[in-house]
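seq/struct pair 1
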Amino acid sequence: MPQVLGSKSSEARASSGAKQAMPKVLISLGSNLNREQNIQQAIEQLSERFAELMVSAQKETPDYTEAGAPYLNVVVAFETAYSPWSVRSVLKQLENDFGRDRSQPAKVSLDADLLQYGDKMIHTGLLKLPSDDMQLSHIQALIKTLELEPEDSGSSK
């Protein structure tokens, strides 16, 4: 069963009036350094910014470089009024806050990727949605623990 986290986020307070349908966003979080702590702290920071989060089960995967420790991964789903580029910016800032050093690919404090933003299809230099990572078997397995199907993530309730 997915973990659901409430929020006191500015976004949640701002949307407390008339409800509008917001796109459902799927992101992945992964870490192979201080894994449990970094993933939990990243989720807590995301819950401060975005309204109700659904968090998948955790899944361990090998390091693709074969030089680092195994990763711990989760998928997080939420609805947001932020643009896809703003969500991506939040994720990249989160990686920076956790000390992500891209010069050391085998040591990843936090990897945060935007997987899907509603039903939007975007292909620019900085952003591709849905992400190619949606095809990874561990991502598919984590999405299933959310009881979501990627195709349904753009539909309104």
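seq/struct pair 2
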Amino acid sequence: MLRRLLPVLLLAVCTPPATVFADTPVTDTAASAPVLPYMGKGELSDLETRFRLAEAFMERREWFRAATLFQEVGLQSTGAAAQFAWIRAGDAHLEARQWERAVDQFLTAVTLEGPHKGLAGLRLGQSYFLGKQYDLAAAVLEDIVMSPAAPRDLRLEAGSYHTLSLVEQGGFLAAAGNYRQLATLAPDPVVQRRFGELAERAEAARDLPYRSPVAATVMSALLPGLGQAYTGSWGEAGLAFTANAIMGLLIWDSVLKAQDLDRLGVRGWPYTSTVVYGMLGSSFYFGNIYGARVHRLNIEDFPADGVSVQRSADAMV
């Protein structure tokens, strides 16, 4: 065993840090320039090494280990390097769905001086939004949208989340105005038209009557599709009712056939198809409950990322 491990240990000891981390890119979503010091003589600094190792942990979806390393780099760095390290620490917590911890990291990044303050503010607003603190999200993101010095893509993305925060609070008229402003920022005519359609939808949504989320959920549990019909989604109501009715008939038919086979003394367990249909039917049933509309409009119809809308403009034609 020792003879087998010896070559591996020698290779690990003799391999220089530049070779280990040479293939791990360090990029900023807002600027592609390196943000941490590089020695320039074939060797990486200790901070750069830990930063690249944290990025490798991000690729492996080890969010806690990545966040810990990013925080260490942020504490020991200054300027842009520290700011971006704290942003990446917050990104790791976002990936782990730890909204409050992400907020703490992005707040630290916002307080630091550096070129990534706009990106830190965007991430902070997104963290508030995902944590359902819509009033705080709207306040933070509005500053980015109203800043003429911010890059256009950054303002588009911040504006999209800012508008969604208004929608969640019932501010449909303000959301419509935001979408029209985003249409003026988007350079692509297709995206401009898309934002115009969203503005019209937001204006129409303010006149819809309020529907209780609890009532919609209970109705869908009692009768599939009833909750969707209660909130005005008639197409989904018909689909949910039809799908669950078909699955119910298949389950009932399989039970009758299994009982006949059981009476005839057929070898084997005759209820296999019943179990399969039952599992499928359960997924349809609980999906119907989960899919009951709990908002006055379909929040999924509004893009959460203005930049992604722009990149997929050709697909919208």
